Amino acid sequence: FYFRNKHRPFLLFVSLLHVHTPLITTEKFQGRSKHGLYGDNVEEMDWMVGRLLDVIDKEDLKNTTFIYFASDHGGFLEAHRGNSQLGGWNGIYKGGKGMGGWEGGIRVPGIVRWPGVVPAGTVIDEPTSLMDIYPTVVQLAGGTVPQDRVMDGHSLLPLLQGTEQHSRHEFLFHYCGVFLHAVRWHQKDSGTVWKAHYATPVFQPEASGACFRRGICACFGDGVTHHDPPLLFNLSQDPSEASPLSADTE
């Protein structure tokens, strides 16, 4: 692939099965991590991504190649084997995979590598979306996105190049399947990030923060609780979504 295209623009999309159950790991990487099978899977994925980056470097393409690495959702909390957690960890954030509103289900880091443009060690703490990949790639290729419809994504280049300091997403709508569960508002004048939850999954057991009895949380029906008025959180002060604001006191 890269020998045919190294002298002209190319797009390589790699969708990895790794860090997703059933955590298929080749024999070479089994038992290497102190974090069990999940860790083995992470190490094998790291090796695979490293092989791709090595080719980019060897062909002297690293300063002209935009590389974006991301996940489509947070860790799978319900994935267990005995006492072993097989589905990752979401840190301070509530919830996980299959939960379209809670931060643990939707908030994942992205890693960009573009030495010719983005300085090493740059940290950008702004909400973006995987929908932003399409307009970013179109801009890099010198094209324009369709003008006959509303595009939900925005190019990441202004953020990455420092010409803009804040995400163009004033609002982000968080769905579980086709059902709207939450909306995030990045209030421009104050910089505060608010989030309203219209529906949340029913955890089983209730205090577990996950849906162990179902295996994964539901998006609708008796698997969710609807909130009217919605649960409101100030994510700037409460990123763990532990304390919903009260309409009476806040």
What does this structure look like?
This protein has 250 residues and is α+β, with helices and mostly antiparallel strands. It has a domain at 2-169: Alkaline Phosphatase, subunit A. The protein is 18% helix and 18% strand. The chain contains five helices and eight strands, in the order ααβββαβααββββ. It has helices at residues 2-5, 36-58, 103-106, 133-140, 157-161; strands at 67-70, 80-81, 84-85, 110-113, 171-176, 179-186, 193-201, 224-234. A four-stranded antiparallel β-sheet has the order 5-6-7-8, with no helix packed on it. The protein has a two-stranded antiparallel sheet with strand order 1-4. The radius of gyration is 20 Å and the shape is globular. The mean pLDDT is 92.
